[in-house]
Specification:
globular, 263 residues, 10% helix, 13-stranded antiparallel beta sheet, 3 helices
Length: 263
Protein backbone atom coordinates (compact mmCIF):
# COMPACT_ATOMS: atom_id res chain seq x y z
CA UNK A 1 0.00 0.00 0.00
CA UNK A 2 1.41 3.39 -1.02
CA UNK A 3 1.22 6.60 1.01
CA UNK A 4 -1.53 7.82 -1.31
CA UNK A 5 -3.50 4.60 -0.80
CA UNK A 6 -3.23 5.08 2.95
CA UNK A 7 -4.14 8.76 2.74
CA UNK A 8 -7.35 7.95 0.82
CA UNK A 9 -8.32 4.83 2.76
CA UNK A 10 -11.99 4.43 3.70
CA UNK A 11 -12.89 1.98 6.49
CA UNK A 12 -16.41 0.57 6.40
CA UNK A 13 -18.36 1.02 9.65
CA UNK A 14 -21.78 -0.11 8.49
CA UNK A 15 -23.76 -0.42 5.25
CA UNK A 16 -23.75 3.33 4.61
CA UNK A 17 -20.89 4.81 6.63
CA UNK A 18 -17.12 4.88 6.19
CA UNK A 19 -14.49 6.38 8.48
CA UNK A 20 -11.71 8.36 6.78
CA UNK A 21 -8.80 10.46 7.99
CA UNK A 22 -8.00 13.47 5.82
CA UNK A 23 -4.23 13.64 5.41
CA UNK A 24 -2.41 16.97 6.01
CA UNK A 25 0.04 16.03 3.25
CA UNK A 26 -2.41 17.15 0.56
CA UNK A 27 -2.86 20.82 1.46
CA UNK A 28 -2.64 23.77 -0.92
CA UNK A 29 -2.13 26.41 1.71
CA UNK A 30 -4.93 26.15 4.25
CA UNK A 31 -7.41 24.02 2.23
CA UNK A 32 -7.01 20.41 1.15
CA UNK A 33 -6.78 19.72 -2.57
CA UNK A 34 -10.17 18.98 -4.13
CA UNK A 35 -8.94 16.08 -6.24
CA UNK A 36 -7.52 14.39 -3.15
CA UNK A 37 -10.87 14.82 -1.38
CA UNK A 38 -12.72 13.30 -4.32
CA UNK A 39 -10.38 10.30 -4.22
CA UNK A 40 -11.27 9.76 -0.56
CA UNK A 41 -14.98 9.89 -1.32
CA UNK A 42 -14.60 7.56 -4.28
CA UNK A 43 -12.83 4.91 -2.19
CA UNK A 44 -15.98 4.59 -0.11
CA UNK A 45 -18.41 4.81 -3.02
CA UNK A 46 -16.65 2.10 -5.04
CA UNK A 47 -16.36 -0.18 -2.01
CA UNK A 48 -20.13 0.10 -1.57
CA UNK A 49 -20.82 -0.54 -5.27
CA UNK A 50 -21.20 -3.85 -7.15
CA UNK A 51 -18.92 -2.37 -9.85
CA UNK A 52 -15.20 -1.67 -9.86
CA UNK A 53 -14.69 1.78 -11.36
CA UNK A 54 -16.00 5.34 -10.81
CA UNK A 55 -16.81 6.31 -14.39
CA UNK A 56 -18.52 9.63 -13.63
CA UNK A 57 -18.31 11.89 -10.59
CA UNK A 58 -19.90 15.27 -9.92
CA UNK A 59 -18.85 16.95 -6.68
CA UNK A 60 -20.05 20.17 -5.10
CA UNK A 61 -17.63 21.64 -2.59
CA UNK A 62 -19.85 23.09 0.12
CA UNK A 63 -17.07 23.82 2.57
CA UNK A 64 -13.32 23.29 3.01
CA UNK A 65 -12.69 20.32 5.32
CA UNK A 66 -9.55 20.29 7.43
CA UNK A 67 -7.09 17.45 8.01
CA UNK A 68 -8.31 14.92 10.55
CA UNK A 69 -11.15 12.45 11.08
CA UNK A 70 -14.24 12.56 8.87
CA UNK A 71 -16.86 10.22 7.46
CA UNK A 72 -18.25 9.37 4.05
CA UNK A 73 -21.93 8.47 3.95
CA UNK A 74 -23.04 6.55 0.86
CA UNK A 75 -26.65 6.35 -0.32
CA UNK A 76 -27.39 3.85 -3.07
CA UNK A 77 -29.76 5.35 -5.65
CA UNK A 78 -30.02 2.60 -8.26
CA UNK A 79 -28.06 -0.44 -9.45
CA UNK A 80 -28.56 -1.96 -12.88
CA UNK A 81 -26.77 -4.60 -14.94
CA UNK A 82 -24.03 -2.29 -16.22
CA UNK A 83 -23.95 0.71 -13.88
CA UNK A 84 -24.86 1.84 -10.38
CA UNK A 85 -25.67 5.29 -9.06
CA UNK A 86 -24.98 6.64 -5.58
CA UNK A 87 -24.84 9.82 -3.55
CA UNK A 88 -21.82 10.21 -1.28
CA UNK A 89 -21.39 12.92 1.34
CA UNK A 90 -18.15 13.81 3.08
CA UNK A 91 -19.06 14.84 6.62
CA UNK A 92 -16.80 16.37 9.25
CA UNK A 93 -17.93 17.17 12.78
CA UNK A 94 -21.50 16.42 11.70
CA UNK A 95 -21.44 19.02 8.90
CA UNK A 96 -21.58 18.09 5.17
CA UNK A 97 -18.45 19.27 3.36
CA UNK A 98 -18.73 17.74 -0.13
CA UNK A 99 -21.74 16.26 -1.93
CA UNK A 100 -21.04 13.87 -4.81
CA UNK A 101 -23.13 11.98 -7.34
CA UNK A 102 -21.16 8.96 -8.55
CA UNK A 103 -21.76 6.48 -11.34
CA UNK A 104 -19.83 3.22 -11.13
CA UNK A 105 -19.31 0.56 -13.77
CA UNK A 106 -16.62 -1.94 -14.73
CA UNK A 107 -14.33 -0.98 -17.61
CA UNK A 108 -13.02 -3.88 -19.68
CA UNK A 109 -10.15 -2.13 -21.45
CA UNK A 110 -11.66 -2.42 -24.92
CA UNK A 111 -9.97 -0.68 -27.86
CA UNK A 112 -11.70 2.60 -28.74
CA UNK A 113 -14.04 2.74 -31.72
CA UNK A 114 -12.95 6.37 -32.19
CA UNK A 115 -10.48 8.56 -30.36
CA UNK A 116 -9.48 12.16 -30.87
CA UNK A 117 -5.93 13.48 -30.53
CA UNK A 118 -4.71 15.68 -27.64
CA UNK A 119 -5.76 19.29 -28.08
CA UNK A 120 -2.11 20.41 -27.66
CA UNK A 121 1.19 18.75 -28.55
CA UNK A 122 3.43 18.67 -25.48
CA UNK A 123 7.23 19.01 -25.57
CA UNK A 124 9.34 16.12 -24.32
CA UNK A 125 9.42 15.54 -20.56
CA UNK A 126 13.10 16.54 -20.56
CA UNK A 127 12.15 19.95 -21.96
CA UNK A 128 9.60 20.62 -19.21
CA UNK A 129 10.33 22.17 -15.82
CA UNK A 130 9.37 21.88 -12.17
CA UNK A 131 8.05 24.74 -10.10
CA UNK A 132 10.35 25.96 -7.32
CA UNK A 133 9.77 24.33 -3.95
CA UNK A 134 7.25 26.39 -1.94
CA UNK A 135 8.25 28.07 1.29
CA UNK A 136 7.43 25.94 4.37
CA UNK A 137 5.23 28.65 5.82
CA UNK A 138 2.95 28.45 2.76
CA UNK A 139 1.77 24.96 3.81
CA UNK A 140 1.86 23.68 0.22
CA UNK A 141 2.35 20.09 1.34
CA UNK A 142 0.70 18.70 -1.81
CA UNK A 143 3.84 19.46 -3.82
CA UNK A 144 5.84 16.83 -1.95
CA UNK A 145 3.41 14.10 -3.07
CA UNK A 146 3.66 14.91 -6.80
CA UNK A 147 6.09 15.08 -9.67
CA UNK A 148 4.86 17.72 -12.10
CA UNK A 149 6.88 18.85 -15.14
CA UNK A 150 5.37 21.94 -16.76
CA UNK A 151 5.30 23.07 -20.35
CA UNK A 152 7.41 26.26 -19.81
CA UNK A 153 5.09 28.82 -21.50
CA UNK A 154 2.21 27.83 -19.18
CA UNK A 155 4.04 28.91 -16.02
CA UNK A 156 4.98 32.38 -17.28
CA UNK A 157 2.82 33.74 -14.42
CA UNK A 158 5.64 32.69 -12.08
CA UNK A 159 7.99 35.28 -13.56
CA UNK A 160 5.39 38.01 -13.86
CA UNK A 161 4.60 37.42 -17.52
CA UNK A 162 1.03 36.13 -17.77
CA UNK A 163 -0.12 35.71 -21.36
CA UNK A 164 -3.79 36.48 -20.74
CA UNK A 165 -4.84 33.05 -22.02
CA UNK A 166 -6.18 30.63 -19.34
CA UNK A 167 -4.22 27.38 -19.73
CA UNK A 168 -1.93 25.01 -17.85
CA UNK A 169 -0.08 21.90 -19.03
CA UNK A 170 2.21 19.38 -17.36
CA UNK A 171 3.38 15.80 -17.14
CA UNK A 172 2.28 14.18 -13.90
CA UNK A 173 3.10 11.19 -11.73
CA UNK A 174 3.10 10.51 -8.01
CA UNK A 175 6.36 11.25 -6.18
CA UNK A 176 6.27 7.76 -4.67
CA UNK A 177 6.42 5.13 -7.43
CA UNK A 178 2.84 4.08 -8.13
CA UNK A 179 0.96 3.12 -11.27
CA UNK A 180 -1.95 5.45 -11.85
CA UNK A 181 -5.43 4.12 -11.02
CA UNK A 182 -8.85 5.81 -10.93
CA UNK A 183 -8.09 7.42 -7.55
CA UNK A 184 -4.83 8.90 -8.82
CA UNK A 185 -6.80 10.21 -11.80
CA UNK A 186 -9.27 11.89 -9.42
CA UNK A 187 -6.28 13.74 -8.00
CA UNK A 188 -4.79 14.40 -11.43
CA UNK A 189 -7.77 16.35 -12.77
CA UNK A 190 -7.30 18.94 -10.02
CA UNK A 191 -3.52 19.25 -9.49
CA UNK A 192 -2.64 21.85 -12.12
CA UNK A 193 -2.30 25.47 -11.00
CA UNK A 194 -5.60 27.20 -11.82
CA UNK A 195 -5.69 28.19 -15.47
CA UNK A 196 -6.55 31.77 -14.46
CA UNK A 197 -2.99 32.21 -13.15
CA UNK A 198 -1.79 32.63 -16.73
CA UNK A 199 -4.60 35.13 -17.30
CA UNK A 200 -3.16 37.29 -14.50
CA UNK A 201 -5.36 36.24 -11.56
CA UNK A 202 -3.43 34.82 -8.60
CA UNK A 203 -4.45 33.44 -5.21
CA UNK A 204 -6.53 30.53 -3.96
CA UNK A 205 -9.21 29.73 -6.55
CA UNK A 206 -11.77 27.56 -4.72
CA UNK A 207 -13.57 24.91 -6.77
CA UNK A 208 -17.36 25.11 -6.45
CA UNK A 209 -18.41 22.27 -8.75
CA UNK A 210 -16.28 19.63 -10.51
CA UNK A 211 -17.36 16.84 -12.84
CA UNK A 212 -14.93 14.28 -14.19
CA UNK A 213 -15.18 11.11 -16.25
CA UNK A 214 -12.97 8.04 -16.14
CA UNK A 215 -12.61 6.97 -19.79
CA UNK A 216 -10.04 4.17 -19.52
CA UNK A 217 -7.66 2.57 -17.05
CA UNK A 218 -4.26 4.22 -17.56
CA UNK A 219 -1.07 2.51 -18.70
CA UNK A 220 1.97 2.81 -16.38
CA UNK A 221 4.13 5.88 -16.80
CA UNK A 222 3.71 9.63 -17.04
CA UNK A 223 0.27 11.17 -17.41
CA UNK A 224 -0.15 14.25 -19.57
CA UNK A 225 -2.45 16.97 -18.20
CA UNK A 226 -3.82 19.62 -20.57
CA UNK A 227 -5.86 22.35 -18.89
CA UNK A 228 -7.74 25.23 -20.50
CA UNK A 229 -10.50 27.74 -19.80
CA UNK A 230 -13.20 29.32 -21.95
CA UNK A 231 -14.55 32.23 -19.94
CA UNK A 232 -13.55 34.40 -16.98
CA UNK A 233 -16.27 36.76 -15.83
CA UNK A 234 -17.93 38.17 -12.70
CA UNK A 235 -15.34 36.49 -10.46
CA UNK A 236 -15.96 33.01 -11.95
CA UNK A 237 -13.98 30.86 -14.36
CA UNK A 238 -14.24 27.41 -15.91
CA UNK A 239 -11.43 24.89 -16.28
CA UNK A 240 -11.32 21.78 -18.46
CA UNK A 241 -8.62 19.13 -18.13
CA UNK A 242 -7.72 16.26 -20.45
CA UNK A 243 -5.63 13.42 -18.99
CA UNK A 244 -3.68 11.25 -21.44
CA UNK A 245 -1.65 8.19 -20.47
CA UNK A 246 1.77 7.04 -21.68
CA UNK A 247 0.13 4.94 -24.41
CA UNK A 248 -1.51 8.04 -25.89
CA UNK A 249 -5.03 7.25 -24.68
CA UNK A 250 -7.49 9.73 -23.24
CA UNK A 251 -8.12 8.31 -19.75
CA UNK A 252 -9.95 11.14 -17.96
CA UNK A 253 -11.78 14.37 -18.68
CA UNK A 254 -12.97 17.05 -16.27
CA UNK A 255 -14.71 20.38 -16.13
CA UNK A 256 -14.99 22.60 -13.08
CA UNK A 257 -16.50 25.92 -12.13
CA UNK A 258 -14.43 27.92 -9.67
CA UNK A 259 -14.04 31.34 -8.13
CA UNK A 260 -11.27 33.61 -9.34
CA UNK A 261 -8.46 33.71 -6.78
CA UNK A 262 -8.56 36.24 -3.99
CA UNK A 263 -5.26 37.72 -2.79
Amino acid sequence: MTKFDEATQAIRIDETTYDVCLDPGYCIGAPLNGGYLMAVVLRAAVDASPFEHPVSTTSQFLRSPVPGPAQVRVEQLKAGRTAAFARATLVQNGVPQIESLITTATLAGADPVYTDAPSVVMPLVEECVKLPDPKPENNMTLNAQLDLRFDPPTIAWLTGGPTGRPESRAYFRMAEPQDADPYVLALAVDVLPPVVFLAGARGWAPTVDLTWHLRALPAPGWLTLIGSGRLITDGWFDEEVEVWDSAGRLVAQSRQLARVGRG
